[in-house]
Design a protein that fits this description.
Blueprint: E1 5-9, E2 12-16, H1 32-35, E3 41-47, E4 50-56, E5 59-63, E6 68-72, H2 78-86, E7 88-93, H3 99-106, H4 115-119, E8 123-124, E9 133-134, E10 139-147, H5 151-154, E11 156-166, E12 176-180, E13 183-186
Antiparallel strand pairs: 1-2, 3-4, 3-7, 5-6, 6-11, 7-10, 8-9, 10-11, 12-13
C-alpha cells in the first residue's frame, strides 16, 4: 500500500497517510478564517471636513522601509470613497480592551452615524494626513495611498506609512484577530526561536 492514497468517502476526498489523521474537505467560503492576517484594526478617513472610522481585518505588510501595507476595503463601505478620493487614512491598532467598540464600529455605517461620538472613540489630529488618530489605540499609522492599480478589480490599496505613533503607557498590548462570524482570537504567549527572519 502506498504511503498516501486518495479515496472518496461521503463525496469528500481525503488524503490518508499512515500515522496521520484523515484530512476532510473545507468549504472554500471558510478559507479566510484560516488566513485572517490580523490584528483587527480601525481605519479612519476624512473627506469634506467629515471624519469616519471603520473596522478592518484584511491587511498585510508588503515592505519594511518605508513601511507598505496592502489592505482591502469593500466598495460598499462608506470609507472606501473617502480613501479613494483623498488617498489618506490612519490605521489605528486597538488592544483587546477596545474589542467591544471595534465590533460596534464594524457593525455600523458612517453614512448616517458619527461613530466617534456614538461609540466613545476619541479622534485626535494627525501630523501629516487629514484623517484623525484614535487616542484610545496603542498605535496609529498615518498613511497615504501610493498604488491604486488594483482598486478597481480587487478593492486593494497599497498604503505607505508616513508617520507612526505608539502610546508608551500601553505596555504589551494584546490584539484581537478575527476568526469569522463574530469569533475573535486574542494574542497569547510570545515565544522566541533562533531565526534569520527580520
Amino acid at each position: 500500500m502506498s504511503a498516501c492514497i486518495r479515496r472518496t468517502l461521503d463525496k469528500e476526498v481525503h488524503a490518508v497517510t499512515p500515522g496521520l489523521s484523515i484530512m476532510r474537505k473545507l468549504a472554500l467560503s471558510e478559507v479566510y478564517q484560516l488566513l485572517e492576517p490580523g490584528p483587527v484594526v480601525l481605519l479612519t478617513t476624512a473627506r469634506a471636513g467629515r471624519a469616519n472610522v471603520m473596522t478592518m481585518s484584511w491587511h498585510m505588510m508588503v515592505d519594511f522601509e518605508p513601511p507598505l501595507i496592502a489592505c482591502v476595503i469593500s466598495s460598499n463601505n462608506y470609507s472606501f470613497a473617502a480613501l479613494r478620493r483623498t488617498g489618506e487614512c490612519v490605521i489605528a491598532i486597538p488592544a483587546v480592551g477596545l474589542a467591544d467598540k471595534v465590533v460596534k464600529v464594524g457593525n455600523a455605517s458612517g453614512r448616517d452615524l458619527n461613530k466617534f461620538a456614538a461609540f466613545g472613540i476619541t479622534p485626535r489630529p494627525a501630523a501629516r494626513v487629514a484623517a484623525p488618530l484614535i487616542a484610545e489605540c496603542f498605535a496609529n499609522l498615518e498613511c497615504r495611498a501610493v498604488d491604486t492599480r488594483m482598486v478597481n478589480k480587487y478593492n486593494l490599496f497599497i498604503l505607505k506609512v508616513v508617520q507612526a505613533w505608539r502610546d508608551p503607557a500601553q505596555k504589551d498590548p494584546q490584539t484581537i484577530h478575527h476568526r469569522g462570524y463574530g469569533a475573535f482570537a486574542v494574542d497569547g504567549e510570545t515565544i522566541n526561536l533562533p531565526s534569520k527572519m527580520r
